[in-house]
């Protein structure tokens, strides 16, 4: 059983979009896809077989006022307009609908990681939990604290899956994978700056203390998970696919040229996957 994990990372997720487009070009079908945050959106298009769909979201729709910005933050309390992205654009009557039927009929089992804001624990939703035109679990997985308020699914508030399980490699092996392709959106050796997470944790302390604890420690967890992945790569059980640099791109950066270059880096980096999966 072969799995793939896409850790997301805001607009840096375009690297994963390039990786997955090449996988579609080469007919690579994974048994399990686990997506975190923007990686979950990548996974939906991959499972639906919609090559190039993610690229359009990152390089065209993301530049629209409706997509994200301070106006939406002021009016709705969230910088990123999840309902515009994953409803107005993605529903069956939207500008670029997700091929829901193709996603559901895909042989690839698809999991989406979100963080229960109350307990701080990771929740692994399945594509079967996602009715047509009800893509709340993707919205929940992408809701970064401070940037966005928590997104409710069935009355439960959720934050970004990267808070509680930033690199769900253990989850993939627990699900029975023999090999896992791990898509990172930062260089393998990059140690994340914890300042932003420390601020977010402080901001969450009073409302969601358990989520705050997870937020404060998630960068350290990320680093340890990447170390483990690199060790497993030596054993031939993991293939880490990561950019050599990200051109200064931040989580919510909007630079068309840098985004395009990072997409192309992903497409090139994916050349090693076909041999790895056999």
Question: Residue ranges: pLDDT <50 for 5 or more in a row?
Answer: none
Number of strands: 8
The helix-strand sequence is EHEHHHHHEEHEEHEHHEHH
Radius of gyration, whole Å: 17 Å
What does the largest sheet look like? 8 strands, mixed
How far apart the termini lie comes to 11 Å
Helix content: 40-55%
Please give the count of helices: 12
- How much β-strand is present in the residues? 5-15%
The structural class is alpha/beta
General shape: globular
Mean pLDDT: 93
Summarize the structure.
The protein is of the alpha/beta class.
Q: Can you put this structure into words, describing what you see?
A:
The chain is of the alpha/beta class and 278 residues long. It is 42% helix and 14% strand. The protein has helices at 14-25, 38-48, 53-59, 70-76, 82-88, 100-105, 136-141, 169-174, 195-204, 209-234, 256-269, 273-277, and strands at 2-6, 32-36, 109-116, 122-126, 151-153, 156-160, 179-183, 238-241. Helix 9 runs antiparallel to helix 10 (209-234). The longest helix has 26 residues, at 209-234. The radius of gyration is 17 Å and the shape is globular.
What characteristics describe this protein?
single chain, 278 residues, alpha/beta, 12 helices
How are the elements arranged and paired?
Blueprint: E1 2-6, H1 14-25, E2 32-36, H2 38-48, H3 53-59, H4 70-76, H5 82-88, H6 100-105, E3 109-116, E4 122-126, H7 136-141, E5 151-153, E6 156-160, H8 169-174, E7 179-183, H9 195-204, H10 209-234, E8 238-241, H11 256-269, H12 273-277
Parallel strand pairs: 1-2, 1-7, 2-3, 7-8
Antiparallel strand pairs: 3-4, 3-6, 5-6
Helix pairs in contact: 1-2, 1-11, 9-10
């Amino acid at each position: 059983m072969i799995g793939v994990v896409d850790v997301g990372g805001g607009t840096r997720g375009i690297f994963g979009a390039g990786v997955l487009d090449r996988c579609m070009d080469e007919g690579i079908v994974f048994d399990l896809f686990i997506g975190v945050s923007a990686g979950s959106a990548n996974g939906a298009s991959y499972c639906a077989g919609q090559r190039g769909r993610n690229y359009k979201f990152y390089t065209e729709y993301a530049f629209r006022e409706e997509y994200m910005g301070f106006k939406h933050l002021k009016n709705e309390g969230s910088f990123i307009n999840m309902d515009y992205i994953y409803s107005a654009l993605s529903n069956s009557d939207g500008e670029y609908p997700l091929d829901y039927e193709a996603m559901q009929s895909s042989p690839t089992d698809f999991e989406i990681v979100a963080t229960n804001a109350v307990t701080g624990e990771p929740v692994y939703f399945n594509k079967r939990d996602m009715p047509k035109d009800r893509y709340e679990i993707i919205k929940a997985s992408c809701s970064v604290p401070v940037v966005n308020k928590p997104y409710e699914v069935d009355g439960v508030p959720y934050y970004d899956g990267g808070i509680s399980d930033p690199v769900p490699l253990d989850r993939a092996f627990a699900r029975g994978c023999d090999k896992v392709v791990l898509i990172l959106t930062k260089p393998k050796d990059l140690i994340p700056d914890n300042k932003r997470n420390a601020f977010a944790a402080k901001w969450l302390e009073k409302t969601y203390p358990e989520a705050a604890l997870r937020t404060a420690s998630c960068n350290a967890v990320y680093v340890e998970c990447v170390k483990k992945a690199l060790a497993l790569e030596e054993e031939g059980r993991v293939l880490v696919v990561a950019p050599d640099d990200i051109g200064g791109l931040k989580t919510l950066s909007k630079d068309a040229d840098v985004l395009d270059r990072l997409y192309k880096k992903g497409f090139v980096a994916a050349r090693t996957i076909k041999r790895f999966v056999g």
